[in-house]
Amino acid sequence: MPAVMEATLRDASLYAGIAVLLGVLSFLAPPVRRRGLLLMAVVALVALAGVWLLANYGGRFGDRTLYEVVREALLALLALAVIRSVLLFATRIALARFNVPSIVSDVLQGLALIVYALFRLDAVGVNLAGIVTTSAIVTGAIAFSAQEVLGALWAGIALQADRTLRIGDWILFDGKSGQVVGIRWRTTSIRTKNYETIIIPNASLIKDKIHVLYRAGTPELALREIPFSVAYDQVPSRVVAVVDEAVQRADLPNVGRDPPPWSVCASFDDSGITYKLLYRIVDLGRSRDTDSTMLGIVYAALQRAGMVIPFPQRDVHVFRAAGPEERLRREVERRLVALAQVELFALLTETERRTLAAAVQPGLFVRGEALFRQGEPADSLFVLARGRLGVYDERDGAARRRLAELDAPGYVGEMGLLTGQPRGATVVAESDVECLRVDKAAFDAVLRARPEIVDELSQVLARRQAENDATLQALGVQERGAREHGRARELMLRIRKFFSLSPSAGPR
């Protein structure tokens, strides 16, 4: 065996031993990380066996050139196996916690093979200066004619180097959504929900905007939004409550429960109010089926609640001459029923109540809204037709203290209507509330037409205040009556002054 070949065999044995050692050490890592290392160890042993056979039986080659070609091919195969083994072990096992992108390993492998090729060319006596000069010219020509390809190549390196995208991510790009299934040097592949594979040049991903819908490996689930509409005759808070109850009670395996699905009022549109149902989805690949299931639940919940889902339409209304008058008449009748339940207005005649009903202002308050706040100027009364109110004390900047609650039918703010006294408490809607607002202007005509009812109104106010005054609970019947009488006279004078009515002797 020639001395040169003996040294070559010794070096080949050393490098093959490195590949085999790394393959053995890889068994300390999980199976998914040692993939490829055992194959490279086998390739290194095969290349070493070839070098040994060539060293022992290579003398039988009659052609020296053929001998050298076989030798260099075997050494190149061994070099590839060793370089690949070192890089795989370093990136997948030794530096596993850094999650090194695979393209980094590919680039380093390419550079290492170039260095090895230059080294072997010099070893066999090839003129490297001429090759470098020629290759530079050729490389420049290739680079000029393949700028787009090279741009995509470097874009792929950048994508993986800064981990803009990862395998398993769900992205939205150019109107198409899909899961990233491959990132190569020049292109990135995404698989859509229709099981179509879209190949995107990496240069386009670098230049344009990418929406990452879900990042692989993160515990937070992707958020889905499903719009739906409901007619304007429904209070948004009630629609939200109906839909939330339905979707939160349903058994939905592909829907996250932390947080549970919820809905919000999104916008007021031409045909109805638009809402959005939001939920966390476990598997985006099944979003189409899950969205369909969620919409079915929404539809059923709205149907049960008697809520109409509108569609784009133009309404042509044909009224008879008495149409608007009829609607006004029905509305006044509805208001009359509410006013008749108020103790203050029980003193009025049917005609007076009808006049008042035509002048009041209907109002809708949703949960959490304040009808008025303590200390605000006042000149109106609120008749509660539906819902519940909470009465709170907020004086002197102290913490809010709950005083009482009021369910329909009822009324609040009578002192503001009749005396102009500032609000004595804060009143907040504790549910969706329908009420009628009776202000001074509406009540003024009634009192001016029949000012004598001021005396009776003052007595009703005094009695109501006495019933709400905790300090009167310990008084006897006579003492309580005397106190009410004195308060009634005071209230009568204040009512007449507020409405600019002539003085009266008052209650006796």
Describe this structure in words.
With 508 residues, this protein is an alpha+beta fold. It is rod-shaped, with a radius of gyration of 43 Å. The strands form 4 sheets. A 5-stranded antiparallel β-sheet has the order 4-3-2-1-5. It has a 4-stranded antiparallel β-sheet with strand order 9-16-11-14. The chain folds into 4 domains: 3-145, no CATH class; 164-214, Roll (SH3 type barrels), CATH 2.30.30; 222-304, Alpha-Beta Plaits; 323-450, Sandwich (Jelly Rolls), CATH 2.60.120.10. It has 15 helices and 16 strands.
Morphology: rod-shaped
The poorly predicted ranges are 470-480
Q: What percent of the residues sit in helical stretches (DSSP H or I)?
A: 40-55%
* Sheet/helix structural class: alpha+beta
List keywords for this structure.
single chain, 508 residues, alpha+beta, SH3 type barrels, 4 domains, five-stranded antiparallel sheet, 49% helix
Question: Could you outline the blueprint of secondary structure elements for this entry?
Answer:
Blueprint: H1 3-25, H2 37-57, H3 64-94, H4 102-123, H5 128-145, H6 147-161, E1 170-173, E2 176-183, E3 187-191, E4 197-201, H7 202-207, E5 211-214, E6 222-230, H8 236-249, E7 262-268, E8 273-281, H9 287-304, H10 323-340, H11 350-359, E9 361-365, E10 370-372, E11 380-386, E12 388-393, E13 401-407, E14 410-412, H12 414-419, E15 426-429, E16 433-439, H13 440-449, H14 453-468, H15 477-498
Antiparallel strand pairs: 1-2, 1-5, 2-3, 3-4, 6-8, 7-8, 9-16, 10-15, 11-14, 11-16, 12-13, 12-15
Can you describe this structure in just a few lines?
This protein has about 500 residues and is an alpha+beta fold. The protein is built from 15 helices and 16 strands.
